[in-house]
């Protein structure tokens, strides 16, 4: 059975772990560098990107996470996770993991819309629109040529994929819909058991 790690330094860790188990994955909570050896994929949850960025350095996880992602391990970043994976954060000199060819805007939905829900169609996810929960959400401002846009809210890109790197500006772990986690687990399966 595939083992998917959930970065366990801050944020919605338990909810991601529950969703992953419900779609049939084994889950490893990742807090120490050695945990990275035991996983076939990694979820980087929402929370606060500056804090998570500091904590992954403090816990000695930064280099190991980057190396595994560069080596092809599937990664799924939600909300703050999307910011951590981006090559550039607009208006800031800080870059965290910088492995995805995206420019992102933090807190782009403004204070008056701290959180909201919207049903959005997501390409690659069959069936009804997906219930997207946004909490002080970022969005993707621009993408490189290798990045596929999977969903938009108005003009704003809120889900994208580049090879084995998947991101959403919303929190799929906070709705009862398991399809995004099933989609990610499928990416992990295809990578760890190539046909
Ligand atoms: N806007 C937050 C940040 O910059 C992310 C919010 C979230 O993950 N819910 O980190």
From TrEMBL:
Keywords: Glutamine amidotransferase, Hydrolase, Lyase, Pyridoxal phosphate, Transferase. The active site is at 79 (nucleophile), 171 (charge relay system), 173 (charge relay system). Its EC number is 4.3.3.6, 3.5.1.2. It holds the Pfam family SNO. L-glutamine binds at residues 47-49, 106, 135-136. The keyword Plastid does not apply. It catalyses: L-glutamine + H2O = L-glutamate + NH4(+); aldehydo-D-ribose 5-phosphate + D-glyceraldehyde 3-phosphate + L-glutamine = pyridoxal 5'-phosphate + L-glutamate + phosphate + 3 H2O + H(+). Gene3D superfamilies: 3.40.50.880. One of its GO terms (biological process) is L-glutamine catabolic process. In the presence of PdxS, forms a dodecamer of heterodimers. Only shows activity in the heterodimer. Belongs to the glutaminase PdxT/SNO family. This is Pyridoxal 5'-phosphate synthase subunit PdxT. It comes from Ferroacidibacillus organovorans. The lineage of its organism: Bacteria, Bacillati, Bacillota, Bacilli, Bacillales.
């Amino acid at each position: 059975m595939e083992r998917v790690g959930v970065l366990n330094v801050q944020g919605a860790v338990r909810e991601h772990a529950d969703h992953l188990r419900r779609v049939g994955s084994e889950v490893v909570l990742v807090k120490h560098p050695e945990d990275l050896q035991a996983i076939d994929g990694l979820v980087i949850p929402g929370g606060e990107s500056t804090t998570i960025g500091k904590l992954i350095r403090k816990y000695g996880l930064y280099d190991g996470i980057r190396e595994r992602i560069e080596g092809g391990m599937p990664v799924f970043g939600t909300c703050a996770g999307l910011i951590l994976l981006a090559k550039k954060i607009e208006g800031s000199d800080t870059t965290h993991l910088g492995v995805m060819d995206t420019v992102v805007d933090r807190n782009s939905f403004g204070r008056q819309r701290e959180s909201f829900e919207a049903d959005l169609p997501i390409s690659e996810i069959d069936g009804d629109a997906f219930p997207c929960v946004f909490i002080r959400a970022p969005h993707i401002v621009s993408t490189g040529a290798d990045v596929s846009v999977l969903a938009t809210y108005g003009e704003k890109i809120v889900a994208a994929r580049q090879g084995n790197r998947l991101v959403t500006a919303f929190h799929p772990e906070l709705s009862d819909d398991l399809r995004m986690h099933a989609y990610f687990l499928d990416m992990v399966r295809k990578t760890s058991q190539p046909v």
